[in-house]
Amino acid sequence: MPRPVISRDRSMFPRAVRLLLPALAVVILLPASDVSAQYEGRVYAITDARLVTLTGQVIESGTIVLRGGLIEALGADVSPPADAVLIDGEGLTVYPGFIDAYSQAGLALPGRQEREHAGNIADRLATEYFDPASTDLAEYLQQGLTAALIARSDGVFGGQAVLMNLMGDDVPSMTVRAPVVQVMGYQGQNDYPGTLMAVVAYQRQTLIDASYHDLLQTRYRREPRTMVRPPADPDLEALIGVSKGESPILGIVLKENDFKRLRNLAAEYSLNYWIAGAEEAFRVPDLIEAAGVPVLVSLNFPSINQVTGYWFDRAYRNLSEEEKEELDARDEAAVHSNPAAVFRTGVPFALATGGMRSVGDFLKNLRLAVEAGLPAEEALKALTINPAAIFGVAGVLGTLEPGKIANLTVTEGDIFTDDEAWIAHVFVDGRKESFEAPKPPSSGGGGGGEAGGVWTVTLSFGGESAEAEMILTQEGETVTGELTVEGQTIDLEGTFKDGKLDLKGSIPELGAVTLTATIEGDEMSGSLGLGPMGSADFTGKRNPEDESGERRVGR
Question: Domains of the chain by range and CATH?
Answer without folding.
Answer: 1-97+398-439 (2.30.40.10), 99-190+246-393 (3.20.20.140), 444-552 (2.40.128.120)
